[in-house]
Predict the structure.
Amino acid sequence: MAAEVANDLILKVESGICDEFSTMMANDAMITLNLIPKSVDVLDPEDFANIFGDNSCQIISSNVTWQDELNQKFIITEENATALIAKINEFNDAIDSLDILLENWNLAGQNNLGANLETAPLFSAPELDVRTLTADDTVADALHVQYEMEIDGETFHMSKIVGSGWQTLLEAANLEVTTVDEVGDTPEVPVDDAQFGELDKNKKVRQAAGDSTDITMLYDLKLDVVVELGRTQKPVQDILQLGRGAIVELDKLAGDPVEIYVNGKRLALGEVVVVDDHFGVRITQLVRKSERVQSLGE
């Protein structure tokens, strides 16, 4: 590990990841949730124990694979975790555990860091564990990053323990590119024609497998949104007999959620509501972002 932790660099790159995470939550979950990295240092077991003590904690672990594999653990007290999820559920009850929430952080990290690296880091799916912390959690040479999570005027403390390789990864992703003005006179170099391989029309977007996908350029694109109450199949003879007052039985039971499709891809489930003189749909459950991104390639 480096003799000194590059605090400013780590906080700078972490802030970029957290900003992308907050944007994702606002766009996809309709939640204004800010995650702010406040400090980073070499993990001090005594200081760490002072923060969490013997309290039951939620520990959300995942592996990050780049040049090597390292483990990261987001840690929050069970009391704060319960209060945080309750606050989030006031706006979106589809996020019912922190591993679902931090899956979005991993996706933001993969996209953000992968944009500046030849090979994007791979983040495994988060795993949630509820227990008190042990001496095994305070591994040697680890980094301790402290965050504040803000939502609806309330602030929650969260920590992360991550291997020292995290600094190496962030340093590589933060390399500055020299601009043309800094280079001066550019010597003439031979230029070869670009060679393009055959496009694979069947290639799918595989976010879970580690492919870095940036779709921010599509945010202003207008899409068709369809709310489907239900479906049924009937012979042509029955269709021709339909008239005013006829009842068509659907495959949904009364009270079942309606399905919301965007350009033919299922986005969410919801319930029908009345807003003034208009019908509307309240979203009750979102399809996970990774599944939605994957569907773009289908």
Observations:
- Confidence is low (pLDDT under 50) at residues 176-184, 201-211.
- The chain is about 30% helix and 30% strand.
- The helical segments are 7-28, 45-52, 78-89, 98-114, 165-173, 180-183, 236-240, 289-295.
